[in-house]
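Notebook B, p. 112. Complex prediction, attempt 2.
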Amino acid sequence: MIFEQVFNMINVGLVILDEDLFVCHWNRWMELHSGIQAENIIGSPIFKFFPNLDNPKFLRNCKSVFKFGNFSFFSQKLHHYLFPFKPDSTFGSEFNHMQQSCTMGPLRDESNVISNIYLAVQDVTEIAAYERKLVEKNMQDGLTGVYNRRFLDTKIQEEFSRHKSYHRPFSLIMCDIDLFKNVNDTYGHQCGDVVIKQIATKIESMLRKTDFLARYGGEEFCCLLPEANLEAACNLAERLRQAIEEEEVNFDGQTLKITVSFGVAYMHDGVENAETLLQMADEALYVAKKSGRNRVAAA
Amino acid sequence: MSVAAEQTLSADEQDILQELMNIAFGRASADLAEVIDTYVVLNVPEVRTLKVDDLPEFISTEISEHDIISIVEQSYLGKFKGVALLIFPSGAGRELLNLFGDSNEDYGEDVSMASLEKESLMEVANILIGACVGKVVELLDDEVSFSPPRIIIEDHPRNAIPCEIFEPDSLATVMRTVFQFSERNISGYFFLINSNESFQWLKKALNLFMEQYE
């Protein structure tokens, strides 16, 4: 009697299935979130109401629990959910479905034979939402919204390994806003921020979806271009240079003209590691600066 | 009886445990074929009693031919109690994903290849550990619960051994075997590190197990 009350009062979805995966019990939590009353689903195969569960992994894990009496875990990270329910809280607005962490385990009869399995469904939407925000914040530059240095460092390592394994080309463009110190000194740091944001937006709008733009330092950006050879990267850098040259930045009733210098480096077999590639792009940038700024130089 | 004798298994008891595991793994192997449609060869297990402090080095030596490894760890909790470790050489995740991945399933954009591989490792480890431990405790007339599997990827094994769950200076029964997925290039090591706390019970259970044959 008391156990039955707990079964229905607990803030966790509980389902009990028999060996043919027919529903034997369906608690109140499941009724509330699925809109399916226990009396309507008990006695039916679970797949009749949830055809999405009829997949090899779910079946494999049911078999395993019946055979070995172990537990199976369906993580939110990979599966997001087992039962497609609507998100419950305001945190769920960014998810189409309630995010669930589910466990499956054995239930034995009087003679100790596994006769049923249970499924416990936990709503982890709020945790998943926080995690997603944290992951985004960890990759993003606060001012411009483009990727940050930390993300770029990891991404360059990934691209480097991909190059080592599959010999796919990739290039880097280092971009540095010319005479940025003058902007800050003349118009103030708020203006400097506006310039940085606008340049980032401009560059990002001209990249392919597969490219990555990161804020590398104060007024320095880095574009990582997978699958781009040196020629393609230089062409892009030149287009970026022209576009920014033509752009006007408006701040506090004044109009500023900004230019950017570019250093391009290309990954080839002679480059030993990712750091060397960054250094090559940096050196090319230095050449562009030395030879008068507002230009593109290649390593 | 001295303290040491209480804490270790006698030679006979070790033999019984080894034989029992052999039976259990045979059964696990047969049932695994049904569950995952692949035959998993589980070699004859080896049983040893080791000091907990020596565990990391023992495991490192055992797997020294592999530089990069993935380790999945899962605790089991019953009268039979301890930690199971499955050690895969690097690249096994990809192989397992090919074997068990559901190509029709859409995992969404935010799920990377690396996390799919990790999930495959954990799923397979969960089933393998569940099968092996499940069959062992069945023969010992016990039932166990399992913690969710955890993965420690490409890490030095020393960091992966959760020594803190054992009392320092205590002894652990280590059961080790090599498993191999037939017709697939997937193999690895399986360690059961049984906690000291269950020694007394294990001794009794092993003797009870033997009585059936005497």
